[in-house]
Specification:
- The protein contains 2 helices and 12 strands; from the N terminus they run H-E-E-E-E-E-E-E-E-E-E-E-E-H.
- The strands form 5 sheets. It has a 4-stranded antiparallel β-sheet with strand order 5-4-1-12, with no helix packed on it. A two-stranded antiparallel ribbon has the order 2-3. Strands 6-7 form a two-stranded antiparallel ribbon.
C-alpha cells in the first residue's frame, strides 16, 4: 500500500512539474554579454492558460512587423536566439539570425531601444519590455503585443542556448556581467 501511495505522489509531482517546467531548457538569469563571448537565449513564454507554454520569441523577416512566438524547431533555431548587448551604455535585445533588435516591446527594428527585464520575486520568469513601453505579451495568432494588466502571457523564461553555455558559465564565474536582480 505504501508503494502504491508513493507511486501516486511521485506521478502527481511529475505531472505538476511538467505543467510549469520550461520546454526548451532550464531557466537562467539574463546576463549582458559581448560580441567576443556571446550568450544567446531562447526567450520562452510560460502561458499555460493560453496554450503558449514553450513558445519562443521570434523576429520578423523584415523590420517593423510585430514579433512572433511559436514552438522552437530545427528550422527556426537560429532565429529563436537572442542576445543582451550593451551598446554605448544602453542594454538592448538583439536577434542572432537577423541582427534586428526588439523595439517598442513588440516589433523589431534595425536600431534597438533600451531593453529591461523585471523578475517576479522568488520565481524564474520575467516581464520583458523595450523602449520603456508596456511589457511584451504573447498574443493571439502567434504575434506579440503590449499589455499592462497582469497575465501569464507576460511571463518569459530566459533559456541559455546550448552553444552559449560555456560563455554563460564564464560570465557567472568571473562576475563580469550586469546583474538585473
Amino acid at each position: 500500500m505504501k508503494k502504491i501511495l508513493l507511486s501516486v505522489v511521485l506521478l502527481l509531482c511529475g505531472i505538476t512539474m511538467q505543467l510549469f517546467a520550461q520546454v526548451n531548457g532550464i531557466a537562467a538569469r539574463p546576463l549582458v554579454s559581448t560580441a567576443a563571448k556571446p550568450v544567446y537565449y531562447y526567450i520562452e513564454n510560460r502561458s499555460a492558460s493560453a496554450g503558449f507554454t514553450g513558445n519562443v520569441l521570434l523576429p520578423r523577416a523584415t523590420t517593423g512587423g510585430k514579433l512572433r512566438h511559436a514552438l522552437k524547431t530545427t528550422l527556426n533555431n537560429d532565429s529563436a536566439m537572442w542576445q543582451l548587448v550593451n551598446e554605448s551604455g544602453t542594454v538592448k535585445l538583439k536577434n542572432k539570425l537577423t541582427g534586428y533588435y526588439m523595439s517598442g516591446s513588440h516589433t523589431c527594428a534595425s536600431a534597438g531601444d533600451v531593453f529591461e527585464v523585471n523578475k517576479y520575486e522568488g520565481l524564474t520568469y520575467y516581464k520583458i519590455r523595450s523602449g520603456r513601453q508596456s511589457p511584451t505579451l504573447a498574443h493571439n495568432n502567434n504575434l506579440c503585443d503590449r499589455q499592462t494588466a497582469e497575465s501569464d502571457k507576460l511571463h518569459w523564461y530566459f533559456i541559455v542556448a546550448p552553444e552559449s553555455d560555456a560563455n554563460y558559465q564564464e560570465l557567472i564565474a568571473t562576475n563580469s556581467y550586469r546583474d538585473w536582480e
